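Quick one from the shared queue. A colleague (R.T.) flagged Thymidine kinase as missing a structural entry in our internal table.

Convert sequence to structure tokens.
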Amino acid sequence: MAKLYFYYSAMNAGKSTTLLQSSFNYRERGMNTMLFTAAIDDRFGESVIASRLGLKEDAHIFDTNLDLFVKITNQLNETPLHCVLVDEAQFLSKGQVFQLASVADRLGIPVLCYGLRTDFQANLFEGSQWLLAIADELHELKTICKCGAKATMNMRVDEKGDAVREGASIEIGGNDRYIALCRKHFHEKLRGPQL
């Protein structure tokens, strides 16, 4: 039986690198993959999944209006598919998470989703919330805080490196806007210098 997987982490844990490696492994064995990334994240160009290591691959883009089940079914009618991989899965809608579950359940194609668990205010993203709720398997990809402990939080920072406490949940950025921290240092940085 095919499964829906969710690989989650804080920023800079190698999610895109892991996704691209998984796709390569399938294709190296003569199997076809279908890759998706969020339309909202065009830092590396439209419809491109790129890693900080320099790996990149063309992908289909999704926004909240795309029916992923229909898109994947249409592709399956043209060519066999052995795996669907989704980058920036935190930006999926609830409906799209259930569509991907249907791809696994009804079409028998494994679906591997990669994304952040929470935003800079420690709130779950919609896609992550529903993947955590219904995915068959959950896997945390680990990265480290400046102290060496496991980083689980995403801190948004301004141009001086100070914590940003307010703003929209979604603001696209990389190392210039976000740092991965352990919970202790996340809260310390939010509180500011103590008296």
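The chain has a mean pLDDT of 89.
The chain has one domain: 4-142.
Added to the table.
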